[in-house]
Design brief:
The chain is built from 13 helices and 15 strands. With 382 residues, the chain is α/β, with parallel strands linked by helices. The protein has one domain: Aldolase class I (TIM Barrel). The strands form four sheets. It has an eight-stranded parallel β-barrel, surrounded by five helices. It has a three-stranded mixed beta sheet with strand order 1-2-3, with no helix packed on it. Strands 7-10 form a two-stranded parallel sheet. Helix 2 runs parallel beside helix 3, helix 4 runs parallel beside helix 6 and helix 6 packs parallel to helix 7. The longest helix has 17 residues. Bound molecules: 2-Phenylacrylic acid. 2-Phenylacrylic acid (8OZ) binds next to loops.
Length: 382
């Protein structure tokens, strides 16, 4: 193993390149960044932004505590008021939000951490009560998701969204570009485009949600068009080595379906290769996806297609993460719940220390409890 190496390796640290299997705990150069290890804090919605969807000092403290991750990806952050779909998620479209995020990035950088902002538009996964002027949420096509939106008044049935007109897509691309610009002003090290979990870009990718008959629907090439245009809009602001994108090829969350996910996401990943992004972030099937009949596509399917850096996510523990990195099927592993409950997760996994158990009751909303009060090993040993 390569635990002692301090020299970053460039991009894919395959076993043959290095003469030995890469370790989860060894540094890696990812795009323009030198990461101190390959453990990433996954984006986690926590619904604790302040009024105006502005990050607070409490949020800065939460991220600061987790700065020993090789990279932190922020919670999903709406790019515009119409991108909102849940209570108290932060935004990146106002001066106050930029200033709030600046406090977060300053806190993470003071601990030598690195942090990307996740750019998010929920599309149809919203509700008129969350939308400017009570308008309908927008989506590629007017197809109502099964289920309920999480509104300020509690769960309410989803509505049929309004299909975006062709002449509106430029406005949305502008929102992504402006949000990317704001992320730069807020001091982030890069951005991750949220293309997963049934939100706007995923709604364009899959044929269960995209029934458009114009250049943005129908063939796979057409369904990829808008998400790839968004990538290009973000690349007008950031160099490719500071941009990632998250995809959920096996995901069923938010009532998602595709008639041929291997073909759809295989084509997407192949198309992304051309841009030379920092990474693609691939979610594998979760237990719930398997239960809901999702097509299980392992990350190895994408490894065979994509030459760049791959981050994998999906209920990984330490040994499983080490195994996938050593195999070369992924270069980075992101952890959600484990990072939520273990601010010093990298240290705990490296030393095989016991882990704090996450408490689902405090995942979404609330204050410091279940947010900034999970102890480090050092705090537990006092
Ligand atoms: C859980 C609750 C609300 C939102 C995602 C942004 O799945 C989310 C999310 C997760 O990507």
């Amino acid at each position: 193993m390569n635990h002692d190496s301090t020299k970053p390796t460039q991009g894919r640290g395959s076993a043959t390149d290095m003469g030995q299997a890469p370790s989860l705990f060894s540094p890696l150069t990812v795009g323009e960044l030198h990461l101190s290890n390959r453990l990433v804090m996954a984006p986690l919605t926590r619904n604790r932004a302040g009024s105006g969807f502005v990050p607070q000092d409490l949020n800065a403290e939460y991220y600061r505590q987790r700065a020993s991750a090789g990279l932190i990806i922020s919670e999903a952050t709406q790019i515009s008021p119409e991108g909102l779909g849940y209570p108290d998620t932060p935004g990146i479209y106002s001066a106050e939000q930029i200033a709030g995020w600046r406090r977060v990035t300053d806190a993470v950088h003071a601990e030598a951490g690195k942090m990307f902002l996740q750019l998010w538009h929920v599309g149809r996964i919203s509700h008129p009560s969350m939308q400017p002027g009570g308008q309908l949420p927008v989506a590629p096509s007017a197809i109502k998701p099964a289920g309920q939106a999480a509104t300020y008044e509690g769960p309410q049935d989803f509505v049929s969204p309004r299909a975006l007109r062709l002449d509106e897509l430029a406005r949305l691309r502008d929102q992504y570009r402006l949000a990317a610009q704001n992320a730069l002003a807020a001091g982030f090290d890069g951005v991750e485009i949220h293309g997963a979990n049934g939100y706007l870009l995923d709604q364009f990718l899959r044929d269960g949600t995209n029934r458009r008959t114009d250049a943005y629907g129908g063939s796979i090439e057409n369904r990829l068009r808008f998400p790839l245009e968004v990538v290009e809009s973000v690349l007008e602001v950031w160099p490719p080595g500071r941009v990632g994108i998250r995809l959920s090829p096996s995901g069923t969350m938010n009532d998602m379906h595709d008639s041929d996910p291997r073909a759809t996401f295989g084509a997407m990943v192949k198309a992304l290769e051309h841009y030379g992004l920092a990474y693609i972030h691939v979610m594998e099937a979760l237990e719930a996806d398997t239960r809901h009949g999702g097509t299980v596509i392992p990350v190895s399917y994408f490894r065979a297609i994509y030459k760049g850096t791959i981050m994998v996510n999906g209920e990984y523990d330490g040994p499983k993460a080490q195994k996938v990195v050593a195999s070369g099927d992924a270069d980075l592993v992101s952890f959600g719940r484990l990072f939520l409950a273990n601010p010093d997760l990298a240290e705990r996994l490296r030393t095989g220390a016991p882990l704090n158990v996450p408490d689902p009751k405090s995942f979404y909303g609330g204050g410091a409890k279940g947010y900034t009060d999970y102890p480090t090993l050092a705090q537990q040993q006092v």
